[in-house]
Write a structure and sequence with these properties.
By secondary structure, the protein is an all-alpha fold. About 80% of the residues lie in helices and about 0% in strands. Helix 1 crosses helix 3.
Amino acid sequence: MKFTRRIGKLLLPLFPSLKIRLKQAEIRKTPSEYLGKSAIFSIFVFILIFSVLFVLSLILKFKPEFNIFVYIIPISVSILAFFYNIFYPSLVVARRVGDIEKNLLFFLRHLLIEIKSGINLYDAFLSVSKADYGAISQEFKKVIREISVGVPEITALEELMIKNPSLNFRRVIWQITNAIKSGTNLGNVIEELVKEFSLEQKTKIRMYGSQLNSLALIYMMFAIVVPSIGVTFLIILSFFAGFRLSAGILVLIFILVVVFQFLFMGMVKSMRPKTE
């Protein structure tokens, strides 16, 4: 354990934002411990893959030009494993933010109905914590737990605001805490937030719809038109210029088109507004 922390402390200056990301991802480890374990894991991956490839090279008697891959592959995979571990908290945070943004408007409407019905704030938060709003319900379960042990409502909400990675959610909690402190009508504040986020959501959906037109054109060009014309051109070239069109080239073109489509669909999905 001390050895891993020592390694982590050496690497810590390279990743200054890791401490915040670990807190937001709710990973209960110190940055030095997390970095040390990531480094040890990547070394283990390197040793494992290198051992397997080295034994295979002896058994199958690889040609000398292939021996370099016995070193390149383990190094590449171990580096990827290390950086995957480093960026894993960011992936968890991004997933949490997406879940919160997706349910934020529904949570606000729920809270508005509770407050307008004359229910006190604690019971309204309790109702939200029992509802199915994903990460938001989980956050309010923590708030209810803290209030139950004697922590003031404003303090519990301020702690929630500091730790949460979603900017919009922090904005909502900030508005609620300000309304409580100043004695403003909380129902009116939440009603304004509902209108504001409803308008933002509609704007995002309209923008996404307008972007889809240009994205569809790009998809048609690079997934259908360019490969079709390219293959036709290669066939004509093979007849007149003596160029040999092998099956390997066609397979390569097919793989490139499939990879492009996979990446393109991922990009379109990531651009989609976080709404339900």
